[in-house]
């Protein structure tokens, strides 16, 4: 079996396994099968990545129908990188899952893990496919699974959060479908590579302009770009901790990837950034998101909600990189896409450990906890350094490239804005550290023990990865540059 | 003539706006889901309209027929309908759970609860 034949199994393994897992009895067995499926998928993704970087795109025609007619999986450096991120984060969070899920979800776990696998398969399908309509189908598979996963939350507000996400998410996905409908009407094809060939002749067609606008707005909703972010804080705050940790690292990232794929591959950058004032629009929204997200995060008393608002700010950084429309800017966007997944997952895992012992994620209940749960809160503090962007952490690398890209385009004022929002991150992380170490435990509060090793070890693994990718950047920077090149196409002129 | 010629597309726009308005303005969750269905249905009509060729026959190969309608949009819409049904099912299931947990499905009464930070 060649690597090309193995590649579709990145998606197929979780998809098929979800059907099996749904039928499995008990609580341990479904988790075990899920973990094996996620690991297998991550291993294949890791094998595919170096090939995708060094060689021309891998193309796998489903059912042997040649590409413009059948559905094609087309993998270049950009999707291989995102696929590795999604499958890898799924495997790592699953290591953390059993202990955490045990106290949050009762009864048989077969359906829960089956839904999780469906979400993973959907996200991976979105990244690998080379067919525009296939993107919509996989988007809905992963979204539907995500809505139900969020509704598993213990708090009854999880139901409301899931319902609102369902409404907004469906509107977003339908916008994507409208965009695809317009593209199909003018070109008569759904294959992305084929679309990219046929669209340049239709530069002045209004339907094509409308299609791009609909797709950007639709994916902006899924991405939680500033004015479309309303679903995110509640969904993250009330979902089960394991689900939050996984979603924070993957769901918005895949939406960003889809947006990039359409902006750069399907509609070539000299269309997206010239015909529509996309660069300006994205930059304004990104900067507004960076400030609004960080600002609101500074005043949250609920830790998960604070991290959720911080995510909106981080999405701003990624979109800012995109809006610069240069190779360095795009590299920065991909780097932050990867690094932020590591950072936010580590932070949410640490908060999950706290909630495992205290049952609360409120800042007040955290007071004096630093001495009782030193390992957990040290992990939080170290991951916090990464989100601030302290050197030797992964967060520094992506901000460094973002600053480089800003200077390269002469937008030095962006550097100032990035610094200010980083200082705001210092503040909201510091509030947690201050509460945990510099305040006294309230009188009468129960004595809390350190989180169990089953939770601590995976948390520290992700924290360690944050520092590893802050020092050894060969994989992340190399893959991000290759991904940016793959999207921009070799020798394509930029505005 | 041109205005009537675009009859399908006028209907798409009108249905889409009715659906969208329902989603935004209605507090009742079942009505929100109905609005969502209308919104999606309008997109289905948009797709199907694109496949119609004036004077075209059903896309079955047989003698004496030269012009066929494009069958692909119908297949796509079939998939999209399945997706829509799944979304409606999940949405209604969530509504039932919300009714059990809160005793109401009017979003206006629930608005304060979710943004309340006191756990």
Gyration radius of chain A (Cα, Å) is: 22 Å
Number of strand segments of chain A: 2
Give unreliable regions of chain A as ranges: 491-495
Number of helices of chain A: 20
Largest sheet features of chain B: none
Helix content of chain B: over 70%
Helix and strand run of chain A = HHHEEHHHHHHHHHHHHHHHHH
Q: Label the structural class of chain B.
A: mainly alpha
Secondary structure tally, helices of chain B = 5
Helix and strand content put the structural class of chain A at mainly alpha
Query: In oligomeric terms, what are we looking at?
Result: heterodimer
Give me the side-by-side strand order of the main sheet of chain A.
Answer: 1-2
- Beta-strand level of the residues of chain A, as a percent range? under 5%
Global morphology of chain A:
globular
Mean pLDDT of chain B: 86
Brief synopsis:
The complex is a heterodimer of chains A (495) and B (119). Chain A has helices at 3-6, 9-23, 28-54, 77-104, 110-128, 132-151, 157-187, 192-198, 206-223, 231-238, 241-266, 268-272, 278-298, 303-323, 327-358, 374-388, 394-408, 412-438, 453-471, 474-488; strands spanning 58-61, 72-75. Chain A is mostly helical.
């Amino acid at each position: 079996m060649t690597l090309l034949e193995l590649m579709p199994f990145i998606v197929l393994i979780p998809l098929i396994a979800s059907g099996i897992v749904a039928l499995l009895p008990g609580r341990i067995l479904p988790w075990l099968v899920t973990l094996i499926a996620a690991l297998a998928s991550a291993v294949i993704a890791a094998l595919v990545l170096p090939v995708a970087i060094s060689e021309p795109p891998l193309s796998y025609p489903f059912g042997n129908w040649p590409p413009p007619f059948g559905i094609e999986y087309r993998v270049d450096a950009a999707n291989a990188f995102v696929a590795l991120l999604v499958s890898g984060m799924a495997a790592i969070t699953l290591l953390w899952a059993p202990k955490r899920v045990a106290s949050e979800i009762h009864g048989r776990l077969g359906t829960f893990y089956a839904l999780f696998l469906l979400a993973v398969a959907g996200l991976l399908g979105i990244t690998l496919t080379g067919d525009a309509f296939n993107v919509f189908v996989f988007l809905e598979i992963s979204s539907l699974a995500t809505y139900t996963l969020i509704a598993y939350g213990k708090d009854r507000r999880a139901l409301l959060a899931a319902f609102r996400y369902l409404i907004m998410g469906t509107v977003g996905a339908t916008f994507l479908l409208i965009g695809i409908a317009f593209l199909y009407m003018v070109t008569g094809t759904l294959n992305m590579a084929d679309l990219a060939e046929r669209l340049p002749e239709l530069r002045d067609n209004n339907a094509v302009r409308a299609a791009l606008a609909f797709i950007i707005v639709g994916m902006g909703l899924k991405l939680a770009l500033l004015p479309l972010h309303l679903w995110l804080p509640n969904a993250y705050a009330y979902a089960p901790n394991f689900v939050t940790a996984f979603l924070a690292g993957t769901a918005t990232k895949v939406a960003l990837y889809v947006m990039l794929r359409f902006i750069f591959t399907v509609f070539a950058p000299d269309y997206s950034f010239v015909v529509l004032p996309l660069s300006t629009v994205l930059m304004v929204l990104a900067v507004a998101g960076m400030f609004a997200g960080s600002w609101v995060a500074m005043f949250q008393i609920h830790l998960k909600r604070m991290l959720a608002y911080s995510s909106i700010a981080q999405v701003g950084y990624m979109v800012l990189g995109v809006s610069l429309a240069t190779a360095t800017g795009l590299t920065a966007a991909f780097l932050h896409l990867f690094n932020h997944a590591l950072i936010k997952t580590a932070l949410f895992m640490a908060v999950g450990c706290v909630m495992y012992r205290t049952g609360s994620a409120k800042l007040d209940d955290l007071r004096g906890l630093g001495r009782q749960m030193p390992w957990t809160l040290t992990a939080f503090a170290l991951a916090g350094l990464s989100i601030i962007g302290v050197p030797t952490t992964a967060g520094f690398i992506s901000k460094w490239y973002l600053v480089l890209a800003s200077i390269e385009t002469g937008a030095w004022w962006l550097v100032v804005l990035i610094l200010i929002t980083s200082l705001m991150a210092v503040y909201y992380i510091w509030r947690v550290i201050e509460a945990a170490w510099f305040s006294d435990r309230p009188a009468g509060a129960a004595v809390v023990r350190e989180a169990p090793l089953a939770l601590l070890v995976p948390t520290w693994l992700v924290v360690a990865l944050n520092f590893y990718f802050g020092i050894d950047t060969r994989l992340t920077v190399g893959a991000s540059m290759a991904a940016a090149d793959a999207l921009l196409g070799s020798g394509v002129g930029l505005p | 003539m041109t205005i009537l010629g675009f009859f399908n597309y006028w209907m798409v726009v009108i249905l889409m706006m009715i659906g969208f308005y329902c989603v935004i303005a209605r507090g009742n969750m079942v009505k929100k889901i109905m609005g969502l269905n209308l919104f999606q249905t309008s997109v289905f009509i948009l797709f199907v309209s694109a496949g119609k060729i004036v004077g075209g026959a059903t896309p079955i190969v047989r003698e004496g027929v030269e012009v066929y309608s494009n069958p692909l949009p119908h297949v796509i819409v079939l998939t999209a309908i399945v997706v829509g049904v799944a979304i409606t099912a999940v949405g209604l299931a969530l509504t039932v759970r919300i009714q059990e947990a809160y005793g109401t499905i009017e979003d206006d009464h629930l608005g304060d609860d979710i943004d309340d930070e006191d756990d």
